[in-house]
Specification:
single chain, 236 residues, alpha/beta, Carbamate kinase, nine-stranded mixed β-sheet, 11 strands
Length: 236
């Protein structure tokens, strides 16, 4: 039994590095693809947004002297590279996967529209939404919030390297404690860094719940889909 019929899965570009210092770790890519195909075979409709931080991050480029707009555009292209890699890995496992881009770049990907995205999902294919929103100054977190709302997802699943939201960064503060559930207002009031404020506000205003969980632990994605209490639920 699945708890969520249609999801927006947000993946970290940095996590794709695995044990590498840069780029894509083939083992991590294979693990992600296997977990995604597993829930697709359970009948879940899956939209995916993946970041590009393993290749290039716009803000870090700005700090090194790049024009902000150009840097963000480079970051958008990095998400397309990751999307193509994930699409290829999923396709090898027998599930059709379509890359939709926020910027026209046929034949690399199809230009995004809500209608095309939902038609893809309803056919049982996986849709990967790349190039962010197509605009500078917006993160892939905001892109995933936007796409999740547009495709009318039941939930956004934010796969990270940690198993939920904590009072502080658990990798730096060993006394940090984990929330099993938290409201959007509490995130604002406590100043927690879950997603950027634009993304968080969009989810709050459109009543799209978020589950933050550790995607790097194989099997966790299926557990979330089955409704098991792992990670942290963010809600109104």
């Amino acid at each position: 039994m699945v708890k969520y019929k249609r999801i927006l899965l947000k993946l970290s570009g940095e996590s794709l590095m695995g044990n590498k210092q840069y780029g894509i770790d083939e083992q991590r890519l294979e693990e992600y693809a296997s977990q995604i195909v597993e829930i697709a075979n359970m009948g879940v409709q899956i939209g995916i947004v993946i970041g590009g931080g393993n290749i290039f991050r716009g803000l870090s480029g700005t700090s090194r002297g790049f024009d902000r707009v150009k840097g963000d555009q480079m970051g958008m292209l990095a998400t397309v590279i990751n999307s193509l890699a994930l699409s290829s890995a999923i396709g090898k496992k027998g599930i059709k996967c379509r890359v939709l881009t926020a910027i026209r770049m046929e034949p690399i990907g199809e230009f995004y529209s809500k209608q095309k995205a939902i038609e893809t999902l309803e056919k049982g294919e996986i849709a990967i939404f790349s190039a962010g929103t197509g605009n500078p100054f917006f993160t892939t977190d905001t892109g995933s919030s936007l796409r999740g709302i547009e495709i009318e997802a039941d939930v956004m699943l934010k796969g990270t390297r940690v198993d939920g939201i904590y009072t502080a960064d658990p990798e730096k503060d060993k006394t940090a404690t984990k929330f099993t559930s938290i409201t959007y207002d509490e995130i604002y009031n406590k100043g927690l860094q879950v997603m950027d404020l634009t993304a968080t506000t969009m989810c709050k205003e459109n009543n799209l719940p978020i589950i933050v969980f550790n995607m790097d632990t194989v099997g966790n994605l299926k557990k979330v889909i089955e409704g098991k209490e792992i990670g942290t639920l963010v809600h109104n």
